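As a warm-up, study this chain.
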Amino acid sequence: MKRWIGLALLSALILTSCRRQAPESEIATTKIETIKVSTRDVMLTIKYPATMRGRQDIAILPQIEGKIIRVLVTEGQAVRAGQPLFVIDQTSYRAALITARANMHAAQAHVDNARLTLQSKLQLQYQKVVSAFTVAQARYALRSAQAELEQARAEVINASNNLSYTVVKSPSSGVVGTLSYKIGALVSSSMTEPMTYVSDNAEMIAYFSLNENQITSILRKYGSKEAALKEIPEVRWQMNDGSLYKFKGRVVTISGLLDAQTGTVSVRAAFNNPSGLLLSGANGNVMMPIILHHAVVIPQTAVSELQDKMLVKRVIGGREKLQQIQVYPENDGKNYVVTSGLKAGDIIKKN
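Now compare it with the structure written out below.
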């Protein structure tokens, strides 16, 4: 009898223990960590692929024909305005200048002779030895000689200019680009490929584009293109290796025309380049910050991706429901800015 009583008590204890633990187990399986969606102001950084150019990339083209006999610079060399870059064979141009000067001296002699003749004819007319017609002829001869002298002087100037063009000089300070022509190469004023470029790199310009939606959003935000240029925050330059250039830049130009073929607007941002680290022709990204007001922000851990769809689990009445959302293309790596699918006050599962 005692044995049966002991078994009954043991069974009662086990049943009591199970009843006490069951509610705890049920609570553990139904507990959901949730987030109440809210809005706040957030700053994002948008990357725009860009190409860096010097403030002036000047094509160096010859103004005369001839062979290059000297190259006075090297690629990448810093030059000042007026510094010689190339020398073209000067032999024929020196001879042309000498000939032009000789012709000018001869023309001057003709003028002097015609002037003396006129003075003589005037004296003879005063003495009534020659007629007025003879004097008029002498006067016209002087004018003709003077015209020839002016033409000879112009030829001297032209020959002198041509000789000066044999020394190709840099029109501005900057850095020399690729040297397309070497010693012995024949160049002419009709050629289309520059001998080189000189890039003024004291200030560099990053060229990039905004699509129609982006430029419309900016103009709507700031009210006008002029206001946008004043109020757009400073931008950064991300170099090709992923590093950020230490000096910030500013947007200086927004084109007023939408390219019909690409559907984009050209934009330029300027960066100071005191150390010459930025190179003309370099590729990178312009990093433009934008501020979104009253944006719906949720953690990325709350979002799942399925076949290019972004999904969250909304909690409604204690039950989970999948909700598709759209997010801003840019993010900070931890959060998404939701553009559609959620609103402030919604409850979503945390993860």
